[in-house]
Amino acid sequence: MLIAIPSHPAHVCWTSQEHDTDMLPRFRHQPNPQRPGSGGRRLLLAVLASTLLGAGCGDDGESGRGGGFRPSGTTTVVTEAITEQPLVETIQAVGTARALHSVVLYPEAAGNVTAVHFQANMRVAAGDTLLELDNRDERLAVALAEVQLADAERLVRRYQQVNEVDANLPQSQIDAAIAAADTARISLDQAQVALDRRFMRAPFAGVVGITEIDAGDRIDSSMQVTTLDDRSKLLVNFAVPEVYVSKIQTGTPVDVRLWGEAGQSLQGEVIAVDSRIDPTSRAFTARAAIENLNDQYRPGMAFEISVRAERGNFLTVPDVAVQWGADGAYIWIEQDGKAVRHEVQLVKRLAGEILIEGDIPLGTRVVTEGVQAVRAGAQLRDLNPTMGGGEASRTAGETKPVSGQSDNG
Looking at domain 75-86+312-398, which of 1.10.510.10, 2.60.120.10, 2.40.160.40, 2.40.420.20 is its CATH number? Predict the structure, then answer.
């Protein structure tokens, strides 16, 4: 059957009076002057076509401005109570290990090497002699200084004994003898220092590295002899995002794992925190210490550091409740049975949930389903009218930012 729509279709207006019991269509029909006697059938077809096209009008007759039927009554939604949970994140970073004490050894003086008393990877004690230089001249200088000091001290004693008996020596002569003895004592100390510089000794206990120096080589103070490392503990520096500056402190426990291996992790702790934030990376440096009792790790190895940090308690809402507008994120909350829009700040996205910040009481009902139909001030009909007063705080699922960078919303 072919349906023809008149060039001047009938206008349909839905009105409702307070005393009406039914919504009745009223028709304002304008007959078509070109088709006289069109009758009720065409009028009915025009009404049906207008209804299918969604054409409507208000009581004022402005049918083209309404854009459809105006909402009336309540909006059916589903709500949930806003909960609270702590945000616990695992900061992961990679750092390079260094020894607890580590030095590069250079000779204090130039000369010919007469003896090398160590081998590579040998453990030495503090004060052990590692290398000797030719020290014949220095030994002679020490011996000469000892003789001069002994002679000066004898002269001082003689003057004092004579002066005790006859008291005929002027005090200035005795003072000169005492000064000469003091000078000789200083000369002996200088000669001894020069002799000590012909020996290279370990400043602390540790393990020495490889050396390229052999007996007979001539070296000077700019030539590296070997390295010395105390590997009883290893220190690992790692970067931490600035938002955790108040959470990472001395004594904070850390898990350390050798980079690229799935072996058992080591337990350590933070022993130092840098006093400044890097303005480029927006991070600060922390230093962790791990025990190396079995001497299985070496300085220079790369380690993965994991630190659990709690940023505090935050409000939690389902992710479907968060909407976006021109001013940012917002949610619809139920207040006295009506919809109220509330702007929020996103803190962290979790599985099916979002941690937010906002001035909202704990337990407030937030719209989770039907949010697209909600308007400000609309009366809400909650299909899940569970009271929110008994909602308990929960613990957030642990998150793991990559390389120490957190996902802030």
Answer: 2.40.420.20
